[in-house]
Amino acid sequence: MNEPIMPAADAARRLATAGIPMVRAAWAETVADVRRAFHEIGAPHVVLKAGGLTHKTDEDGVELGIASAAQATDAAASMHERLGDRALPFVLQEQVTGIEMLVGIRRLPRLGAALVVGTGGVLAELHQDVARALAPITTTQALQMLRRLRVWPLLEGYRGSPPADVVALVDVIVHVSALAEDHPEIAELDCNPVMVGHRGTGAAVVDARIVTGAAPSPKRPHRDLNRMLRPRHVVVVGVSDDEHKVGARLFRYLVDHGFTGRLDAVHPAGGTVRGHACHKRLSDVDGSPDLVCVSVPANAVNDVAREAAALGAGGLLVHSSGFAEIGPDGRAAQRELARICAEGGVPLAGPNNMGIVAPGSRLTASISGGLEMSELLSGEIALLTSSGALGSCLATRLIASDVGLSYWIHTGNEADIVMADYLDWLADDPATTAAGLLIENIEDGPRLVSAGQRMHAAGKRVFAYNMVRSEMGRAAAYSHTGAMVDDHDLREDVLRAAGIVSVTSLRVLEDALLLASAGKPPRGTRLAVVTFSGGAATIIADEVQRHGIELPELSEATREEVRRLVPSFAAVRNPLDVSYQMLSDPENMEAVLRALAESDEFDALLVQFTTNADPYAADLAQAVIDVRHQISVPLYVSRYGGAQLAPRALERYRAAGVQLLDAPDRAAEAVAVLMRAGAPMHERELAWTST
After folding, report:
1. What is the C-alpha to C-alpha distance for residues 125 and 510, in angstroms, rounded to an integer?
2. Which of 236, 338, 354, 458 has the greatest number of beta carbons closer than 10 A?
3. Nearest CA among 164, 194, 209, 175 for reference residue 23
4. Are residues 199 and 62 in the same domain?
């Protein structure tokens, strides 16, 4: 069913009430009423429109330059004869000139109200020159949206043309944003065109279309996740002595990795498993478990959920598949499972959930094959992933690189607890200092924005790889997660509003987390780069500037200090190419790095080695390690060349806990996203705009 379109006159009044300027207009229900409407406007030139049409220009429903009541009446009669009653009511407006812009909103389930600003008029679809953000926005954010548009130079005043009234346009954008917040029943609002006059003359909406009837997404309750994420009592329902079955593997991981709390098993046949007595039903377990892990057929899960609610369990983690990911019947079963848990007050993780791992407490409530590793490594990096398999890949790669994890959580089908809930909880978790997200869909945009901002306020960096970019990708995700995936760009808007830095690939996400684990973060976005290759210097400069990272020139004092340490032919600037000769001069290389770090002109240093070999490579590695321990800014190291040439150097880096990057473009992007993640949110938005 189509949602109702608000009558044009009512839409105009709604905008005017919200403080959004409209051009002077009057409405006529019949041809005979056009004369009265013309005089009501009182403008020298008037536009006549067929108000009943959506695409008026396409159907020849617009007449310009009308200068008299008689001309207006004749034009209306002709239009009515041509279009019939579809033309009614007639709209007469003051004819204005200026730059045509578009400002609109679209309310999206789960994400909120998306604000769209762009080049307007009849060619809006052709230009596709738009910027988006989540409402509400500030004046500063509205201006930044305009600066992202290709039409921005024209608004500023292009090649001698007078600048447009950007202040007035920004005011329109902010008021439209507020209207979306104040009126959740508005599903869509299209102000096109918004005519922007010369500076000081204002901006006004010419046409407005409002679609009502949106059903606001109900505000989800906050779940208390403390018991299920810090459990002292775990029950596994569906254990087995068949090692090939999921329940058996799950229980084995909990036992072998030494879960420190109470562990109970449930199987209808009773007996024992790995030295633990099996209860025949969950209801037979004494006490109220903090976490109930469920690995039974889908048709038996709801009964387990009812028993968990009766026991007052702290959380239900459903590993079982066969729910929303398989189609309509599965979605119905998933809704019923969520209802049972909600009514029983039990937070639900999943279903179709690989699990939750917390190395600090030896909690391995997961069926991931990654837990076949003999040792987990506890640390300060949290992983939240829509994909269980890719999450396992990333977690095990990080641990193999000596990066410890605070949590490694798969979100599953998100029937109840969603990624935003976990992130919100992590904002208060003292064991977590940074987080990486693998996102296929966003189930609660407003809460993710709030959670991301709380992480940022706590000084915790968050990076996300926003997957599912194509139509084929959306189809694959639907079959995989059972979630209707929202538009990739709109998810990017949510991440941006949340203060979460979006990365371009899994490898960049991995690299960013490697660096985030390596100690003190950069204080700002001023980077000094030292290379041994002009080509590497060029690549790094291009990449970091694409991300809005500063490459400040050296001060005269720093330049003179460095100049005496490098070969005479080296160009002393930033990036600094010290030349291949310095690969065999660790003493002067150490002095160069110290001079840059102690100048107080940079927030971080990046050293990019190319092909170097032991023994000099080992000596240089030691020089870099020594400097890192003595300076107050982070120093990141990248080496692009065969590992067989420098085994001693690589071992020294490993022993010192230096996370080594490789190719210059990859290293530059990893450092850039790390620096962006730590910048104040208004500075980060400006950096994003510059791309």
Report:
1. 38
2. 236
3. 194
4. no
Give CA separation, 201 vs 164, 168, 175, 582, 628, in Å: 9, 8, 18, 61, 57
Query: Percentage of the chain with pLDDT > 90?
Result: 76
What is residue 532's three-state secondary structure?
coil
DSSP character at residue 193: E
Range of the domain at 46: 24-94
Position 683 scores a pLDDT of 47
Kindly state the percentage of the chain with pLDDT values over 70: 94
Place of tokens 């005269």: 556
How far does Cα 640 stand from its chain's mean position?
30
Q: How far apart are CA 604 and CA 521, in angstroms?
A: 9
**Cis, peptide link before residue 216, omega less than 30° from 0:** no
Q: Over 60: is that where the pLDDT of 407 sits?
A: yes
Could you tell me the sign of the dihedral formed by the alpha carbons of 84, 85, 86, 88, in that order? positive
Give SS3 for 26: strand
Which CA distances in Å does 689 have to 150, 292, 362, 545, 686? 12, 46, 43, 12, 5
pLDDT tens sequence across 468-486 = 765 544 444 433 333 333 4
> CA-CA distance, 531 to 540, in Å (whole number)?
9
Looking at residue 689, its pLDDT comes to 36
| Beta-carbon count within 10 A of 458 CB | 14
Across the range 603-628, mean pLDDT stands at 95
Sign of CA dihedral 146, 150, 155, 157: positive
Kindly report, residue by residue over 415-424, the tens digit of the pLDDT. Answer: 999 999 999 9
Measured distance CA(543)–CA(527) in Å, rounded: 12
Q: What integer is the mean pLDDT of 433-443?
A: 94
* Of 529, 355, 324, 527, nearest in space to 443 by CA: 324
665 close to 639: Cβ distance less than 8 angstroms: no
How many domains does the chain contain in total? 5
Strand-strand pairing, 434-439 and 461-466:
parallel
Q: Is the peptide bond before 231 cis (omega within 30 degrees of 0)?
A: no
What CATH number is associated with residue 287?
3.40.50.720
User: Does 14 reside within a domain?
Assistant: no
**Taking Cα atoms as reference points, which of 205, 214, 216, 194 lies closest to residue 14?**
205
